[in-house]
Amino acid sequence: MPKYLVQAKYTTEGIKGIIGDSASGRRADVQSAVQALGGKLEAFYYAFGDDDVISIVDLPNSIKAAALALSTSVTGAVRVRTTPLLTVEEVDQALEIDIHYRAPGAAE
């Protein structure tokens, strides 16, 4: 199942919500949402810096990943960035595909 890195930053309203719900309560809600999409929450961490939450989720496809991002972002309590993750083997497979690409300004 494809993996996605989900980075979230809470708005002021979102932080107020955490205070009321608890950190573990938020994790449980995210886990429920991911499971409802047929996925699994692999990791969930709070962080300092640009992101307040960093998680890794397994989801069936990018449509389900987009549904998760849209449904959480529409609340206005959190801003989400979702990044598809590739395995080492998938990158090796991509490297085996030979395509012709001319960089801008490069000679033919």
What would CATH call the homologous superfamily?
A: ACT domain
Query: For this structure, what is the CATH class?
Result: Alpha Beta
- The biggest beta sheet, please? 4 strands, antiparallel
**Average pLDDT figure:** 95
Structural class: alpha+beta
Q: What's the tally of helices?
A: 4
Residue runs with pLDDT of under 50 for 5 or more positions = none
CATH architectural name: 2-Layer Sandwich
Structure commentary:
There is one protein chain. The protein has 108 residues and is an alpha+beta fold. The chain has one domain (3-95): Alpha-Beta Plaits, CATH 3.30.70. The protein has 4 helices and 4 strands, in the order βααββαβα. The protein has a 4-stranded antiparallel beta sheet with strand order 2-3-1-4. A hairpin with a 6-residue loop joins strand 2 (40-46) and strand 3. The radius of gyration is 18 Å and the shape is elongated.
Short description:
The protein has 108 residues and is α+β, with helices and mostly antiparallel strands.
Topology (SSEs and partners):
Blueprint: E1 3-10, H1 12-21, H2 23-36, E2 40-46, E3 53-58, H3 62-73, E4 78-85, H4 88-95
Antiparallel strand pairs: 1-3, 1-4, 2-3
Keyword list:
four-stranded antiparallel sheet, 41% helix, single chain, Alpha-Beta Plaits, 108 residues, 4 helices, alpha+beta, elongated
